[in-house]
Design a protein that fits this description.
This protein has helices at 13-28, 56-71, and strands at residues 33-40, 45-51, 76-82. With 85 residues, it is an alpha+beta fold. It has a domain at 30-82. It has a 3-stranded mixed beta sheet with strand order 1-2-3. Helix 2 links the parallel strand 2 and strand 3. The longest helix has 16 residues, at 13-28. It is elongated and about 55 Å long.
């Protein structure tokens, strides 16, 4: 067995939430992004973005942002939901 040393890395959850919110705002416009909520589990995150209208574009944006975060070794789920009327 090797003598591997592991270091705990602190992840800034606020930066993750901001990255996701700004990603949606850049594609949809600030007026169409009504809010974000970040949920934290022990070693993973979920960001729920509330938008005016959920459609193929919002789902694609969520997928792109999630893929970018996962490609940077962050376990993050990105979910878009339409405002409840």
């Amino acid at each position: 067995m090797s003598d591997s040393v592991f270091h705990k890395v602190e992840i800034d959850a606020t930066k993750i939430e901001t990255f996701v919110r700004e990603g949606f705002e850049n594609k949809l416009g600030k007026d169409n992004v009504l809010g974000t909520r970040l949920f934290r589990y022990p070693n993973e995150f979920a960001v729920v973005v509330t938008v005016r209208e959920e459609n193929a574009d919002t789902l694609e944006i969520a997928h792109e942002l999630q893929e970018a975060l996962v490609n940077n070794n962050l376990a993050v789920i990105v979910y878009a939901q339409e405002i409840r009327k």
